Fold this sequence. Notes:
The protein is of the alpha+beta class. It has helices spanning 2-10, 53-62, 65-73, 94-107, 160-164, 184-187, 225-230, 250-259, 272-282, 286-294, 349-366, and strands spanning 16-18, 39-40, 48-50, 79-81, 86-89, 111-113, 118-123, 127-131, 134-138, 141-143, 174-176, 180-182, 194-203, 206-217, 221-223, 239-243, 296-303, 311-313, 333-335, 342-344.
Amino acid sequence: MACAAFLAKNTDFAVTVLERGERLGRKLSASGNGQGNVTNFNEGAEHYFSDDKEKVARALARFGARDTVRFLEEMGGVFLPDGRGRVYPAGRQASAVTDLLRGALSRRGVNVCFGAHVRSVSYDGQFCVKWENGHMRGDAFVLAAGGCAAPNFGTDGNAYSLAQAFGHTVTPLSPALVQLRCEPSAVRGLKGIRADALLRVVREKREIYAVRGDVLFTESGVSGDAVFRASSYALAGDELFIDFLPDVSEERLLRALSRGEGENCLLCVVNNGLGRVIFKRTAGDGRRIAELVKGFPLRVTGTLGYAYAQVTKGGIPLSETDDDFMSKKRSGMYFAGEILNADGECGGYNLQWAFTSAYCAAEGIAR
């Protein structure tokens, strides 16, 4: 949608968007927990995973977070950052961002073809794109069909085969920004408990990542903002350690515990339900209680998979594209968004990558 908007504004090309579903931007309307976290002012290649971070950095320099805000505000609306640099529409509705883009495409004369589940793309001097009940020909083709995450929106990974038909490879794929599964016994009795905590990912006794944020216990493991961010680093077999009181020293905690009686020693220390579980597992031993409050251990057994993931890790290697994300295998074929091997941390970085790569592709086509 962004690529089409850029092209329609800056060129006189005939631009068509082929949409598999019956509505544009359904996944966008669910972004940012429905609030539309479109970018992050703390942008930088260090927030991305890719086979070519230097290319990511160059792309962000061409079209960054403030460019995205200007691009969207030119269509209407007001976009504001929060304390962590995450940018939202002032009305906090992701669906409104989708409506802005839809409106821009309509005003700029972009043709949108719905129900076009593309089955094949070939080249004979022009690109020939075919779907079940139709086909189109064009001089440039942008593959911006997402990855495998959230298949309920139509992103089931089938688009990789369109790139592979031109000789492209696909790196190993996995779900990212997703809930983590843990050993069932470790989370038993904790479902629904939420905490602002420090979450550490440890592999072979070495800390891989640490993040402060929301942790929510589920029936199968943990969710929440901190978990989504950590999921880009955690692998099956890693250990998670949750510090439920990151602003309180162990000594201060022990003093508080010594003043309580029995199970009540954790009143006003942690969530009551969490306190009962910790007390039971430690048989009331104060030192052991403090250890669990400051480092509650969980072993990662996997994720909830693509159905619950926000993005896909992996994709078309950036090394197989130029700086405009045009294919090195077929001139005139471009890539944008999640289908490329570049995924960001949680917090607006993935939508920024969508806007950035879309701009680069559009600029390459126009040039």
